[in-house]
Specification:
Blueprint (H helix, E strand, L loop, with lengths): L10 H5 L24 H4 L2 H8 L7 E6 L18 E3 L7 H12 L4 E6 L3 H13 L4 E4 L24 H10 L3 E4 L13 E11 L20 E5 L4 E8 L9 E7 L6 E5 L10 E7 L6 E11 L4 E11 L20 E7 L18 E6 L5 E5 L4 E5 L21 H18 L5 H10 L32 E2 L13 E2 L11 E4 L7 E6 L2 E7 L5 E4 L9 E10 L12 E5 L11 E2 L2 H4 L4 E6 L4 E2 L5 E6 L4 E3 L1 H5 L2 E3 L5 E6 L6 E7 L5 E2 L11 E7 L12 H13 L7
Helix pairs in contact: 3-7, 4-7, 5-6
Amino acid sequence: MVQGWVSYEAIDAVAAESGVTGVGLPTYGMTNIGDYTTAGDGILNCDELRDVTDKDGTGIKVGVISNGIVHWEEVIASGDLPSQITYSSLGSYDEGTGMLEIIHDIAPGAELYFVPADTSAHMVGAINYLEAQGVDVIVDDLTFYIGQTATTTEPYFTDGPSSSVASTAREAVGEGIVYVTCPGNWQQPYDGYYHYYLKAHWQGDYSDGGSGWNDFDTSGSVDTGNGFYVYNGATVYVLLQWSDPWPGSSNDYDLYLYNSALTSPYASSTIRQTGSQYPWELITWTNNAGSSQLVNLRVKKYSGSARELECLVYSNLSSSLQFTTGDSLASQQAVEEVITSAAIDAADAPEYDTIEPFSSWGPSTIYTDLGNNQVSEERESLDVSGIDGVHTKIGNVQGGIYFGDPFYGTSASAPHIGGIAALLLDIDDTLSPSEVADLINGNAVDLLASGYDTTSGWGRADAIATISAAVGEPDLDPSKDTGASNSDDLTKLDNSSADKKLQFTVSGTVAGTTVTLFADGTEIGSTAGNGGSVSILTDGTHDLADGGRSIKARQSETGKLPSVASSPLTVTVDTLAPSVSGTPSVNDEATHRLRVASLEFAFNEDVSADSAALEIYRYDGVGWNELTSWQEESTFTQPQANKARWEMDDEEVDGSLRVKLLSGELDDLAGNPLSDGTDYTHEFLFFRGDFDLDDDVDADDIDLLFRAVYNGNAPVGT
């Protein structure tokens, strides 16, 4: 397909060129604004997802294709749009402005892009433009179902050639872009009212109701006219396609608009299909009768075999068809990789479970063999339901002269889903388009028939349900909380081997999930959730460095993103043994007045002296003798957390002493023994007594003692 501009005088010459199968006006895109309203950010729990994850779409690029953003700058001051939007051109009107506002509401950190599209060829170019801009998400609200010629119309029963909108959308998804579209507003049932911009649809296998006229009534009665009212002065477009090759139809069907009595036609389309033409007929008719007219859509098989038929009606003011059906999604809406969103009216509170009456239904009947075998598949092309009826700033600027408010139609529902996609990609930018679609569809709130249905898809989108439930802060098991206390989150276990594993309790799990522990972002263990609290033993392979380690837990439910991390538990790992710092101090004369044998040890870290033990020896001039009775009378105190004081108040204690502080009998607060197995020995002189008998212990006594020790050659430490 080629679209371009050509002068009226040159049309015949172009049509005569080799390879040209038809010349006509292009298909102009129809936006899908309807008659009804929404507040989807809260209804779809997008606000909750932002709050829980602290993600807002930052770094994600979202592009919109619609009619225009002509007055977008008039909503910047209020904050309804950012000051920077990248666009190819402003287009016409402001439906694109409304769509961008919705996306900005849901993913305020996302970068926004816009490109307008008037025709199907423009649409293909718009998709390619956004792909070149590097967008992550595309949202469109255009359908190209009714063209002035077959060559400018999107086929209903096939995805079309490589140049079609459907094929281009699929290629964009293949390049990693999440593609979201609306199904259109083609489902309006007959309700006895006139509707502006009415869109209606009927599809079914050809059934001869007599004289070749198709029977539209599937209830058992016969009705060869599908009636609807056209307001005086209104124009109606009626299009027919059938399941033949595109092009290459040898089955000839004709399209008519008849009067109410089915006696005379108002208009007809009777293109001959003889084997090379498109399976396509179009009527454009304006009611100039001076009053509203009841007209009947009629289809007649002129020649050939029975085929599946599809009729669409578009009018600026008419009622809907007497007979309507689903299966009204085609083109990019029918592509499996594209997310297509139905609409729910926000006024449907509090259940939000009723699909808008105009919101198009699935499935999509797509033929894999359009020849005599007539092989088709039904695609579950309608994916999920969003919200319409959103109040927008552009709908209220200068009293709404630029755009209607509230914003109704599936054109409003699609950008809600696009905004959710942006949030998910901000949470995890490695997600593929299919994974994003699975998260949105698989976690939707089921609305109608259990599971999938062709009216709501998988149900109403629920942004917060795409992420697993968070769990509680991990709690270190007391048996792994080593040292003096089993509740201070201090341990000598570092997960470096099987005998140094840690164990934690995690609450708030969901049955069947996987609960995973992380230390400073590194996975160290996991287990299955059980609906309550679980115990997780670490893997014994990831060595935790000494110091404060941040322990968090995440929960992963099937079909959901992992939960946000729990609140952190800081566990201090200490694998180093304590050691004596410097030289122990002997006696504190100001405190003890040389009456108590005392030795104070300082350590390189805080210790626990509760179980400290030592051996005491005294030199008798020949050798060192252990004094067990003195040891039994010894006591340890801690004047400071990193010190231990040995004291013994015994009148017999004096002379040259050796004190051995035993390793394994004094630990740091994590339970690591002193000096990693090395005893610490210290020798010193201690005396008590009045050696010169002057009733006072003073320097003279010390001098006498030193001279006595020196003359006796006793070993002296300090």
